[in-house]
Amino acid sequence: MKSQKIPARLQAILWSSDIEHLDLDYHKGYIIHQVLRFGSLDDIKWLLHIYGENKVQNVFLQHPNKSYFKKDFYFIKNYILGLKDKILDEDDYVTSIHGKIRPRAAGSI
């Protein structure tokens, strides 16, 4: 895997690091979750080609990342990764927006 390079098009998906400094093995959790969450179908095909379906499934199952919207989580789990029959706790994967919604100032209405 060391000889493989991350395509330049994935820099926008892997925004928190320079792709030239990412190691496909060491950073596989970050790469897999980011591509699953934000990548196109072509990006996901690249991911499955590089890591294989079993490794992507294992990272998804063994190292949940609470960054998916509910509909994205179920699409990835059920259709992309073929884990339809696997019961997962969505609290480990699904994020939601929390916090108070601040009212507008009277002058800005």
Helix content: 25-40%
- Count of alpha/pi helices: 4
Number of strands: 0
Oligomer: single chain
- What would you call the shape? globular
Report mean pLDDT, rounded to a whole number: 89
Question: What class would the helix/strand composition place it in?
Answer: mainly alpha
What value does the Rg take, in angstroms?
A: 17 Å
Q: Name the helix and strand elements from N-terminus to C-terminus, one letter apiece.
A: HHHH
Largest β sheet strand count, sense and barrel closure: none
How many domains comprise the coordinates? 1
Distance linking N and C termini: 56 Å
- Uncertain ranges: none
- DSSP strand content: under 5%
Question: How does the SSE layout of this entry go?
Answer:
Layout: H1 28-38, H2 41-51, H3 53-62, H4 70-80
Helix pairs in contact: 2-3
In short:
By secondary structure, the protein is mostly helical.
In words, what does this structure look like?
- It is built from 4 helices and no strands.
- The protein is an all-alpha fold.
- The chain has one domain (8-108).
- The protein is globular.
- It starts with 27 loop residues before the first helix and ends in a 29-residue tail after the last helix.
- The relative contact order is 0.12.
- The mean pLDDT is 89.
Task: Looking at this protein, list some descriptive labels.
mainly alpha, 109 residues, 39% helix
